[in-house]
Amino acid sequence: MKKTYKIEVDCANCADKMEQAAKKTKGVKDASVNFMMLKMKVEFEEWADPAAIMPKVRENCKKVEDDCEVFL
Amino acid sequence: MRWLEGLSKKQRTNLQRIIAAALLLLIIAWLPLTGLPRFFAYAVPYLLVGYDVLYKAWKGILNRQPLDENLLMAIATLGAMSLAIYEDGDYTEGIAVMLFYQIGELFQSCAVSKSRRDITALMDIRPDYANIEGADGQLEQVDPEEVTTGSLIIVQPGEKIPLDGVITAGKSTLNTAALTGESLPREVSEGEEVISGSVNLTGLLKIRTTKEFDESTASKILALVSEASSRKSKSEAFITRFARAYTPAVVSAAAVLALIPPLANLGLGETGDWGTWLYRALVFLVISCPCALVISIPLTFFAGLGGASRAGILVKGSNYLEALAEVDTVVFDKTGTLTKGIFEVTAVHPQTLDRQELLHLAAHVERYSKHPIAASLRAAYPHEADDCRVEAIQEIAGQGIKAQVNGHTVHLGNSKLMAAIGADWHKCSQHLTGTTLHLALDGEYEGHVVISDVLKPTAKEAIKALQACGIKETVMLTGDSKAVAEKVAGELGISRVYSELLPAGKVAQVEAILENKKKSHQKGKVAFTGDGINDAPVLSRADIGIAMGALGSDAAIEAADVVLMDDEPLKISQAIRLSRRTLAIVRENTWGAIGIKLLFLLLGALGLSGMWGAIFADVGVTVIAVLNATRALMVPGNTCKTAFSET
């Protein structure tokens, strides 16, 4: 399943970091951050429940970049 | 201070920090402080302007993040500060580096959010609500997502049409500028289809929706545009790779610069001169930040895509923008692309009857037919619905149609029909291309009407504009007969024609062109332009598929890489120009930024450039590159200016 979330982030490099962090989260098959549109597209694993995974993704993003937000 | 209003809260705080730190720096410079008090005095503006960078750098180390700009800036400025402690007590440089770094960051963030706003404003076609008439006749505003297909909605003047549909009552003019880039309002009335995203200008419209919100044009276009900047171009991939290698390389070079020359000097029995070399190494670190590149390339593509959509040209990704710039062969589908795709009566040649009378009879016979030819006859004789009696209509397969009009037998059809009823017909003397319909009244030949597809008024100009843009070859594919195809191609100045093709034959032709290019090692890309009807496979097979007038045709939007919102053939050269300009800006930014950085690295290593030069190479280049990137938002015209284009 794929879902798109609105994000808040300052720089292109930080957006890249968020993308990497989201990708490494368990239950996330693939993630891509569109810095220009401020959107994060997340593809979940078959078994994963987005509602349970996304807070994890947000936490991992926050860890690598303080000034970011993922709107769930 | 109007420009301040556009800043976000964070940007405003950062601006205040920068101003405060700069003022403090000026004040401290006047104070007669020495030694430790001097250090602490200078530490205040330094921390004020740089605390977040230091904090992020520290967190980066804790989280074992790879090198990033925060860490580089932290090392460089802390290094400069500590050098100042034991050397000359000049702390301004370290602080200035941090100060300018922050100014650059602020500027960059403002520029990005401004172009983001500009571009989303251009694409401001998302409808917020739909009006539904309640039981008491009062209008009720509902979320357009909740409106089901087939519902009746009301659109007042000044409102956006929320969903695609058909007008059931009302008459108005629509502004479709945000969708098609066409500034001329469009007149609509009952029975016509309207698309979401256009703005109702004058009259109240009642619309029966034909699509759900997610399937409606406005939603599709928005999805397409926001998706577009996610598809990375080769240039972007190159920059990401370059940035990944560049930063570690410069940092290692800085380490070498700080250690090797002093050690070598010591080995030669001279003084190490550690301070000088450490300073040069720090200069390296300041220059090493790849921000200018990392931000400006995607920003340029983003602005280019935005500018294109403003002109009614939807490019589905940065990669397609890049490919479009390399096009040197444009293949056209004839019908609907170069021609209007609507049949019109182009000639009426009566024998004894009056011109109008002949048309009149022809239109009557076709009164109830759904065939496009019938429609064009009725369009040519608009008073068809008079009180004449039309009866006993009988279709004769492969030949034509027979009917009784006011008691007279009328035959309308091809030469076979005329021969069958023994009418004394003759060929059209003017050898016009198109379909010739012969008419016989009570068995007597009365003349013929020629119906043909007409060229779009700008088709010729469009081909010329493409040739002026350096397109080497224009090719036309059509299912029409050879005679028609060659006549059209000759009129337009198209170099190659392939006629009498079935849809599968078009794919094969495009494949042959691609194959040919590959064999002769030509680099230019092949674009195919079609109207999306029957040519979706060709659209996806060409290097670049350009769908034209594709609003409403889902298959075409799906298969094409570039979607022209209206059916104006001049937009093709405009799209190519726009992509080339964007790519030119990308090249300027890439090589300009890399060049300046390398130059200052060299100057820094030789000791010819100090911290100030390094600040320019970092922040200055970023600012210039970002400003240059926003140029891509401007839309060029559709004609290339070449020496011979005037003739």
Q: How would you characterize this protein structure?
A:
The complex is a heterodimer of chains A (72) and B (647). In chain A, strand 2 and strand 3 (39-44) form a beta hairpin. Chain A contains two helices and four strands; from the N terminus they run βαββαβ. Chain A is 39% helix and 32% strand. Among the domains of chain B are: 130-159 and 163-215, Calcium-transporting ATPase, cytoplasmic transduction domain A; 312-339 and 456-575, 3-Layer(aba) Sandwich (Rossmann fold), CATH 3.40.50.1000; 341-454, Calcium-transporting ATPase, cytoplasmic domain N, CATH 3.40.1110.10. In chain B, 51% of the residues lie in helices and 18% in strands. Chain B contains 21 helices and 22 strands. In chain B, helix 18 (536-541) links the parallel strand 20 (525-530) and strand 21.
Keywords:
heterodimer, A: about 70 residues, alpha+beta, Alpha-Beta Plaits, four-stranded antiparallel β-sheet, 4 strands, about 30% strand, B: about 650 residues, Calcium-transporting ATPase, cytoplasmic transduction domain A, Rossmann fold, Calcium-transporting ATPase, cytoplasmic domain N, seven-stranded mixed β-sheet, six-stranded antiparallel β-sheet, elongated
Approximately how much beta-strand content do the residues of chain A carry? Answer: 25-35%
Count of individual beta strands of chain A: 4
Q: Write the element-wise H/E pattern of chain A from the N-terminal end onward.
A: EHEEHE
Helical percentage of chain B: 40-55%
User: Which class best fits the helix and strand makeup of chain A?
Assistant: alpha+beta
- Structural class determined from secondary elements of chain B: alpha+beta
> How far do the termini of chain A sit from each other?
16 Å
Topology:
The complex is a heterodimer of chains A (72) and B (647).
Chain A: E1 2-8, H1 12-24, E2 28-34, E3 39-44, H2 50-64, E4 69-71
Antiparallel strand pairs in A: 1-3, 1-4, 2-3
Helix pairs in contact in A: 1-2
Chain B: H1 9-30, H2 35-62, H3 69-86, H4 92-122, E1 130-133, E2 139-142, E3 152-155, E4 165-169, E5 172-175, H5 177-180, E6 186-188, E7 193-194, E8 199-200, E9 205-209, H6 217-228, H7 234-267, H8 274-287, H9 291-310, E10 313-315, H10 318-325, E11 327-333, H11 334-338, E12 339-350, H12 355-365, H13 372-380, E13 390-396, E14 400-405, E15 408-413, H14 415-421, E16 435-441, E17 444-455, H15 459-468, E18 473-477, H16 482-492, E19 496-498, H17 503-519, E20 525-530, H18 536-541, E21 544-548, H19 554-559, E22 562-564, H20 570-605, H21 611-630
Parallel strand pairs in B: 11-18, 11-20, 18-19, 20-21, 21-22
Antiparallel strand pairs in B: 1-2, 3-9, 4-7, 4-9, 5-6, 5-8, 10-22, 12-17, 13-14, 14-15, 15-16, 16-17
Helix pairs in contact in B: 1-2, 1-4, 2-3, 2-4, 3-4, 3-8, 4-9, 4-21, 7-8, 7-9, 8-20, 8-21, 9-20, 9-21, 10-20, 12-13, 15-20, 20-21
